[in-house]
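The aim of this short unit is practical: by the end, you should be able to scan a pair of folded records and say something sensible about each. We start with the first protein, listed as its amino acid sequence and then its structure tokens.
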Amino acid sequence: MRYAGEWMSAADDRILEYLSEHESGSPTKMKKEGPIRYSRVQVHRRCKKLAEKGLVKDLGNGVYMITDDGEAYLDGRLDTENWTHIDDESDAVEAQDPPDGEASNGGAT
């Protein structure tokens, strides 16, 4: 399961998937070779946004590559809304607040 931030669009997943499968790519190349159904201009805009957020790296000349955080997002190990890494189930459970009325008080009332 991926944890997409509200700032993300459907195009972002396609871009990240393309860059994960290829060493690098430009918006033009992604549009021609990838399963991306967005205009080159829209892909370019989203690449810039993904670079601002650190999920891809701008190599210059309109070429981008995915970062470790981008790979972590694709693998469901990064929440891009809260910018927290999700390492395993136990970490995710420990981070949650206890349900209402079940605050840890050693059983005292």
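Turning to the second protein, read its sequence before its tokens, just as you did above.
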Amino acid sequence: MNRNYNYLIGNQFAKGNEPNQTSFKKGLTPWNKGKKGTHFSPATEFKKGQEPLNHLPVGTILQRTSRKSGTRNWIKIAEPSKWELYAQYVWKQHYGFLIVGDVTHHLNGFRLDDRIENIIAFPRSDHPIFHNKWWLKELTQEQLGFYRNRYTLERNRQQGLL
């Protein structure tokens, strides 16, 4: 069965006819040549250097939700868009630094409780031990002391006291 699909190709009504009076002829330059775009209302258009409506100042704390880690607090620490986990920020404010490769862990398991008493930092390699298949393993006082003393020793080492 042969069908004729010529009606689908281009404008068949204009084939063989003269173009209408409003179309561009060869040699004519269009009115918008060299322009970047039409500006019908330049007074209300975006201007460079204008602060967006959703801009947040430094120090803003937001709660972000992800599928992997749930809801966490984030703080804006610098412009234009530098964010940090609030638990890490609190730890750095208290101890001055976070050892490379360490993660912050919430002792009570509630990720929005970012008090310094509830946060401990330890190596990423030790972190899965405290999140086993039976949920949260409690840290003993000896373990808490050991992980917190790492930061005291590291600070003394950086200051040249050790």
